[in-house]
Amino acid sequence: MTRWLRLTLASALVALAVFPADALAHGVAAGDKGYLQEVSGVLLVPFAYLGAKHMVTGYDHLLFLFGVIFFLYRLKDVGLYVTLFAIGHSTTLLIGVLTGVSVSAYLVDAIIGLSVVYKALDNLGAFPAWFGVQPNPKAATLVFGFCHGFGLATKILDFDVSPEGLVPNLIAFNVGVEVGQLLALSTILIAMSYWRRSESFGKHVLAANVTLMSAGFILMGVQLTGYFLFG
Amino acid sequence: MTNPPMPPVQPVSPRKLLRSTLVAVLVAGLLLGTVVLPAEYGVDPTGVGRVIGLTQMGEIKTRLAREAAADAERDARATAAEDSAAVTDPAKAASPVPTDSTQPKGDPR
Description:
heterodimer; A: globular; B: mainly alpha; 4 helices; 66% helix; elongated; disordered C terminus
């Protein structure tokens, strides 16, 4: 009983820490939005910077990546999954912006929340336990990468970015996304490596992934409510 | 660089998994209902948000967002109107003092 209470309290605390309330207006910040509407032409470094910033400050992407590297401890594997995610993310970002196809940002962000829940369940081995099948983790990472990129495409479309130099700018943005992702993941990985060395890691796997799941459910709840209120 | 071998992780039983998932849903629902939805949208299904002051935050935030959206729309419309006026009516835009020319120059008395 006390164990569950502790688990619940810990989950609540961490989930709250992960959700600074004003950061929920996620995406490219207001000042950056103004900049994006103002400029035109090829601007590789500014766009790469914005891509990196989006990744380092985009807690929904970070939560998902935290889930993805939970059981990856070889740098090679981390690189593989990050690349898969980046391929997915970049593809739909380019396609979405260039074709002008956009879905409600609330719905895409709700799917991103779902991807966090999925990864937490996957880490706990829920799919073989419940359904007797283990979905291919590489395919899942790629598919959710597609969703994450689509979310960003929807936001960039809202900003009416100048068509001049759009393709090189978007590619620079994607390079920035990759750089930001590696920066953020290196930080997470250092902490994870210390944690994994400790004897207690095995005991905390459940609690950590339940917390991750809670955070994913909260993301879903916020975005779906937003969709029904303003979408 | 060598990595330490992964410590053994005990598989979680399906029952425990289900319970864990329910805990996650409950925690998420609790936080959404009492903290996040009041703070973000001013939606306060439990009344807790009003008591701890977060509903007011959400209400102000949604009001400001609405005002900002209305402002942006008005600005966009004004700019569009200005542009189309300048394009469709060059004579009007070019004439320096359109009204004064029709008025008498001096006092007739």
